[in-house]
Amino acid sequence: MTGLFILMAKTGLFIPAGEGTLIPCIKGIYADIGDEQSIAQSLSTFSSHIKQIGKILTLADENSLVLLDELGAGTDPSEGAALAISILEYLIKCGSLTIVTSHHNKMKAFAAIHPKAENASVDFDIETLSPTYHLSIGQPGRSQALIIAERLGILPEIIENARENLPQNTFEVDSLLEKIKIDSDTISEEKEKASIIKIELEELKRRVKIELEEEKLYRKKTTEDLIEKSQRLLSSAQKEVKETRQTLKKLLKNQKNINLPEALSMIEELQKNLGMEEKKVEDFISAVLPVKLPEPVEKVSPGDYVEVISLGLKGYVTEVFAESKEVKLQAGMMNMTAKISDLARATGADYKSPEETYNNYVSSLKSISVSGELKLISKRVEEALIMLEKYLDDATLAHHKEVRIVHGKGTGALRAAVRDYLKTSPLVNSFRLGGVGEGGAGVTIVELNM
User: How many structural domains compose the chain?
Assistant: First the structure.
């Protein structure tokens, strides 16, 4: 299918693959698949394969895809496995992208230890005697010959005798592979559950944020309406007093028989009532006005004690990401990321000076020991990205300027996922594929923001 997909892509056809899938630029596709034995040409199964493989080896280069089915089969297993490993090593030196199927345990062991090779297997359902079509990267396949033979009706005593004739280490290897399979399935299930929980938490966070914003807007609108109403009432009262005073002054000027003390008393009473009304309005406005939010800061540095305005949480700044205008905070036992525009200067009983906090922060960084290399070979994409995120955090805290991410070549899916993540990480300044002597396309060199 791999060769078919590449040919489809080269001709402009869509392929059945997930979003973000990368197809390598391949110029030549060479395959040895099936049985080409010939009585007329005096060719055995092994001879026919070797003849075809010999042609392929003369043509393969770094722009080639080589597909070899059951490499090393059709002859003595020990010699066949040795020859197969030698052919693989030659193709690796040529730089060819190679996919090989084999039942040789030595081939599995070779792939497990070679830095430019990787095991993979298609899961098999013993109950239905059929493949599940699920590809497990990094996990060698198990031979199910005896189990399948037993299920298909071979006499039990023959099966039992066959098991007794197997070397003891065969059972140990099979038991180990079975345990790896069970552990891998368990991890996959837990990761899937964790992924679902993460999605649910993100959705809950999104809904809570929307509800808080709606509540905030409602309170703001209600408060503004009440304040506007109060101010209108106060203005109306002030206007009424003013008009009354002007009327009284005119009467005092034009009418000699008006009782002056009584008129002045009326004015004083109006002013007193007005003062009381003003006090009531002021008290009302103070009651409905929201608590004044802290003024956002314009610039922060590691060690600053700040408050996240939208959440009311206080903590210390541990990192500042200038490009994304975000910071990483330590709020008690919790690490979090917040926008600089959502921060305000904070004080409190637990406040320490920026100098003291920063000195403690730097001292803690010196105690961190983080390797300059992260190996992701044989990891699934989801697991690898979780490891990568944590590693970049730790490497940044340890003041690494440059780190190596070893993802291997493989199908290119893990490398593509790593590159996509690095593009969005605020911790990353730049990245590139490894050069000569650095691991080539199987390694990504990352420069961190420092």
Answer: 4
Structural domain includes residue 130: no
Final residue before a domain boundary, out of 292, 325, 358: 292
**134: phi then psi, degrees, rounded to nearest 5:** -100, 120
CB hemisphere CA count around 372 (13 angstroms): 7
Q: What are phi and psi of 312, to 5 degrees?
A: 75, 15
d(CA 273, CA 257): 27
Residue 148 predicted with pLDDT over 90: no
Query: What's the pLDDT score for residue 151?
Result: 83
Residues 73 and 51 in one domain: yes
Whether this model's pTM surpasses 0.90: no
- φ/ψ of residue 350, rounded to 5: -95, 15
Long-range contacts of 262-270 (CB under 8 A, 24+ apart): 270/241, 270/244, 270/245
Are residue 377 and residue 362 in the same domain, yes or no? no
Q: What is the β-pairing status of strands 97-100 and 64-68?
A: parallel
Give domain status of residue 110, yes or no. yes
Give per-residue pLDDT as tens, 305-349.
888 887 778 888 999 998 888 999 887 767 888 888 888 888 754
Q: What is the pLDDT of residues 205-226, one digit of tens each?
A: 888 888 878 877 777 777 777 7
160 located within any domain = no
- Distance (Å, rounded) from C-alpha 260 to C-alpha 252? 7
The number of CA neighbours under 13 Å toward the Cβ of 291 is 4
**Do residues 257 and 216 share a domain?**
yes
Non-local CB neighbours of 321 within 8 Å, separated by 6+ positions: 327, 328, 426, 427, 449
On whether both 205 and 287 belong to a single domain, the answer is yes
What is the tally of helices (H) and strands (E) in the chain?
11, 14
Of 321, 336, 366, the residue that ends a domain is 366
pLDDT category at 367 given cuts 50, 70, 90 is very low
Residue 125 inside a domain? The answer is no
Both structure tokens of 307: 């408050």
Task: Return d(Cα 110, Cα 74) in angstroms, integer.
Answer: 20
> Which domain range does residue 189 map to?
167-292
Whether 277 has a pLDDT exceeding 70, the answer reads no
Structure tokens at 40: 């007329």
